[in-house]
Amino acid sequence: MRGARRTTGVRTVSPQHEAPRSSGDRTDLRADCAACFGLCCVALPFARSADFAADKAAGRPCSNLRQDFRCGIHERLRDEGYPGCTVFDCFGAGQKVSQVTFGGTDWRRAPESARSMVEVFPVMRQLHELLHYVTEALGLAAARPVHEELRKARARIDGLTRGSAESITGLDANALRGEVNPLLLRASELARARVPGRRKNHRGADLIGAKLSGADLRGASLRGALLVAADLGGADLREADLIGADLRDADLRGADLTGALFLTQAQLNAARGDAATALPPALSRPAHW
Ligand code: SF4
């Protein structure tokens, strides 16, 4: 969650993607912890587990959150028992809530706004995640037939993110996601149609612990697939659609993820890989690989 550096940086551009229409589009969708009031470390609950070393209720600041809203153990989260914090991405929702919705006044200085901030943050995160995917789809040259609709969707969602705290908490983000999903699906189909041969469909499949080492999954649909602890070592995942796929503890050593669609840094951070894993160039190799 909270970085000690200015930005955590999340990018999902792959070689087949066009350059974004303007750099501002993506910059706004990358977490800028320096402009956020530590909202992920306050708003979200977690329970003592392999991912978190302690319990924390929603709305209560984590005991590791410093006065300057930075994480006090950022450089050693995994060693201190907080790997769960390394796989969270707000897609820029934190700075939007802090600087736009609440105009730069933090919850320490204005404790009366703390509850509202905590309520707005998870909704804003859903909106920003949607914006992130829509923006990526707009970068897919093959998805040009749906670009106009995607642009309209992006403008609408962006407008919603700039409303009042009350209007944001009153939104049905799931319904909005249901409206936008068909567009993302169409964009994915158009992009993957360029992949030669038969493309596998594992949409929503339960592939927990599956033995898929060396599998040909090029251009496959793995949308929402449960790939927890799956063996994907050496698999060909080029241009595969991985939106919402659960890659926790999946083995990606030697896998080829070049051009994977809708793959996020948080998904990579939750998986295992090595120096031989081929990544979309704008995604970073996690430090623990
Ligand atoms: S340990 Fe606490 S302060 Fe640090 S990133 Fe996790 S939730 Fe935030």
Keywords:
single chain, 289 residues, mainly alpha, Pectate Lyase C-like, 2 domains, 0% strand, binds iron/sulfur cluster, 5peptide_repeat, Pentapeptide-BTB/POZ_domain, Pentapeptide repeat-containing protein
DSSP summary: helix tally: 8
Number of domains: 2
Q: Compute the number of strand runs.
A: 0
Low-confidence stretches: 4-24
Instruction: Report the end-to-end length measured between terminal Cα atoms.
Output: 18 Å
Mean pLDDT: 90
Order of helices and strands: HHHHHHHH
Give every kind of bound small molecule, once each.
iron/sulfur cluster
Sheet with most strands: none
Radius of gyration: 19 Å
What structural class should be given to the helix and strand makeup? mainly alpha
Globular, elongated, flat, extended or rod-shaped: what is the shape? globular
Strand content: under 5%
Instruction: Classify the helix fraction into a percent range.
Output: 25-40%
Pfam family, one: Pentapeptide
Organism: Streptomyces caelestis
Protein name: Pentapeptide repeat-containing protein
InterPro entries: 5peptide_repeat (IPR001646), Pentapeptide-BTB/POZ_domain (IPR051082)
Topology:
Elements: H1 23-27, H2 40-43, H3 93-101, H4 114-138, H5 147-161, H6 165-169, H7 173-192, H8 265-270
Helix pairs in contact: 3-4, 4-5, 4-7, 5-7
The protein binds iron/sulfur cluster.
Organism: Streptomyces caelestis
Biased composition (Low complexity): 1-13
InterPro entries: 5peptide_repeat, Pentapeptide-BTB/POZ_domain
